[in-house]
Amino acid sequence: MLSLARRSTPVTSTAYRALSAWSAVPAGPPDPILGVSEAFKADKDPRKINLGVGAYRDEHGKPYILTSVKKAEELVTSSNPDKEYLPITGHAEFTKNAAKLAYGADSIPLTQGAIAVTQSISGTGALRIGGAFLARHYPNAKIIYLPTPSWGNHTPIFRDSGLEVRGYRYFNKETVGLDFEGLKADLLAAPEQSIVLLHACAHNPTGIDPTDEQWKEISNIVKEKKLFPFFDMAYQGFATGSISNDAFAVRHFVAEGHQVALAQSFAKNMGLYGERVGAFSLTTADPEEKARVDSQLKIVIRPMYSNPPLHGARIANAILANEALYGEWETEVKSMADRIISMREKLYNILTHDLKTPGEWGHIKSQIGMFSFTGLTPAHTQVLAEKAHVYMTRDGRISMAGLNSGNIEHFATSVDSAVKGNL
Ligand code: PLP
Hints:
By secondary structure, the chain is an alpha/beta fold. It has helices at about 1-5, 15-20, 30-40, 65-80, 90-105, 110, 120-135, 155-160, 180-190, 210-225, 245, 250-255, 285-305, 310-320, 325-355, 360-365, 380-390, 410-420, and strands at about 50, 115-120, 145-150, 165-170, 170, 175-180, 195-200, 230-235, 260-265, 275-285, 370-375, 390, 395-400. Helix 10 links the parallel strand 7 and strand 8 (about 230-235). Helix 5 packs across helix 14 (about 310-320), helix 9 (about 180-190) packs parallel to helix 10 and helix 15 packs parallel to helix 18 (about 410-420). It is globular. The structure holds pyridoxal-5'-phosphate. The site of pyridoxal-5'-phosphate (PLP) has 12 residues, from helix 7.
């Protein structure tokens, strides 16, 4: 055997490649949002602006750690906590407080002990747990309707969970507003008992939310068609600056007697992006049903990642469980929302009044939350990146949080030139 090995020719790197189990794996497309960040990083121009990623930036364009979060973290570390595993469904006090934040302290299923809730790997993980649970246990056709457009990760999350993904109209290109008639018509035409994904507030990517009256109409259609509402609430507090206003849709649906699924994220409203703090919940009929649902949530989660991370949940809970810190956090959420709103006003004024940029820009002011769908075309976005070092997704979505008084002039004048065709 030894002599055989000695005689065999050395395997070249080309031969290794031919032998690889992965030689037929095709290269996938880059992630459209993270791809924008890559291009931004590679750009060396000092004027560069990244409006692609949905993360809050302060007035100086820097990542922002909330003071309430810093204090909560100090509280957590000063108590010298252990690093033991959490249970499968996570930090029990955190999930209880997360549910209270979303549903409201006086929510009937909450006070009755009928909400099954689990910690999740932020909002994405909550959606994925929900998708997997529905794929396994939803007793009707496993079809989920998403708004068109929706956050780009929704389709793969639900498709990979085993649900059939369909769309309902949401955006009206002509008015750069909500296509409410299209939305209603599509939900009315959906097969009874389909699942419908609703952005609870600060719709991503359009920044357009239904009004309270429109939510009431949507609730009636959902009831009439026996649809199952699945709320994605990734921006509670970011839309209006008020935690309870932003929970209007969820609370209204629950008060109307709908059973709901809910994905929550603390990435944006607490700035805990990389800590991956979230929750998934389902309202159930009563505590006995809740206990059965809880047991099945554990069975879904255990083979996925066993149990969730500890640190971020402790921080979030330290805020939610402490009246003074909670108050401070609410003020900070409002100040983040207000800064975004002030950038909307400023951008609108520069484009409309100062530069007289062709087009109607009222939607910049009326849209809500972190994002604005500007109406810029893929060609505009390309020239803005190449010539003005301004980066955004190809659909013309910008993160308003990436604008500040230091860069808004450069952004607005670049948009103006792009639209006038002379960049
Ligand atoms: N849902 C929507 C609509 C989002 O925009 C995002 C993030 O951008 C998420 C869910 C999930 O975010 P995360 O997993 O960071 O909480």
